[in-house]
Amino acid sequence: MSRLLTAEGADRIANQFYEVRFDTATGNIASIRDRSAGVELVDGTAKYQFNQMVYVHKNSKESKEGYEHLATKARSTKKVSGPVRATFESWIDDEKTGAAIHQTVILYDGLKRIDIINDLQHVRALYSDRFEDRYCDNIFYAFPLAVPGGQPRAEYPGGVVRPYDDQLRWGSHDYLSANRWVDVSNKDFGVTIAPWNEPVFHFGEIRYNEFSINYKPTNPHLFSYAWSNRMAGLLTLSPDDCNATLGYSLRPHEGDWNSGAATQFGWAVASPLLARVARP
Fold first, then answer.
1. Sorting pLDDT into bands at 50, 70 and 90, what band is 1?
2. Beta sheet of 244-254, edge-to-edge order
3. Choosing a second label site near 266 at 20 to 30 A (CA), which of 65, 66, 170, 224?
4. What one-character DSSP code corresponds to residue 262?
C-alpha cells in the first residue's frame, strides 16, 4: 500500500501528516492529531463533537427562545484505506430532524488536507408550508478547535476580518460570511477551514438570533451556519426536497494565518486544478 499509512483500529484513519480518530457510537470526529507538530487540534472538552450536526430551533422568526438538538447515534460506520486515500464513513438516522446523514472524512497520500463531506437527505424538520415558520429551523456543523489563544479570522473581499476587532459597533456581531476561508491561529500554529458552499460562520458559540453589536469570541470554536428553512414553502415542496451536501476542507499549519498560507489554501479549494485530455 504505497506511502499511505494504515492506522491500527477500526476507529481511525491516518496519513503521513494527520491521524483522525472517530467516536464510532456517534460517527463524529473525536480527535485530529497533527503528527509532525505533535499537537491535538480538537477540543475534547467541548459541548459538541467535531463535525457534529447541530439542529437549532427558535420559537419564532426573531425569538431567542428555543432549543438545540445534536445528532448523536450512528447506525453504522466504515473505514477504507487504499493506495491513494483513506476514508471513514458514518451513517446516522436522526429521528428528531428526520435526516438521513452520511458523513465522509477523507485523508490523501502526501497531501496536507482533510476533506469532510456531509450528505443530508430528507431533513424533514426544515420543511413547512407556512411562511410563519421560516427562519425558525436551522442546521449548524460544529468545529471545536483546540488552538490556545487562537485568533479567528475570515477572508472578506479585499481584506481579512477579525470578529469584533475589525467590526464597527453596529450591525450584527453574531457571524461573518467568509469569502473563501476562515482560520483560527496563534503565533505557533492554526487551522484553516475552506467551506465548499456554506460561507457563514459563528465564532466561539452558536449566536443565532442574538442580534448583538458588541460580542467578542472567547474561545477558538467555529460553527458553520450551513442551512436554514428561510425559504420553506418556496424552494421545498415536500419534506423529501430537503436535501443538501455540505463540504469542508481543513488544513492545519505552522505559524499564524499569513505564514500558514490560509489565503493560498482557500483559493486552491475554491478554484481547484482541472485535468483535461490533450488530444493530438
1. very low
2. 74-81, 85-94, 99-108, 114-121, 244-254, 189-195, 182-185, 151-156, 159-161
3. 170
4. H
Q: Is 38 left (phi over 0), alpha (psi -120 to 50) or beta?
A: left
Model pLDDT, residue 234: 78
- Do 50 and 147 touch, CB atoms closer than 8 A? no
Distance CA 66, CA 250 (A): 31
Stretch 19-36: mean pLDDT, rounded? 96
CA distance 23 to 103: 13
Contact 250, 185 (CB under 8 A): no
Beta bridge partners of 248: 116, 195
Q: Do 15 and 108 touch, CB atoms closer than 8 A?
A: yes
Which element (helix H / strand E) includes 265?
Answer: helix 262-270
- Give the strands of the sheet with 18-23, arranged side by side: 12-14, 18-23, 28-34, 39-40
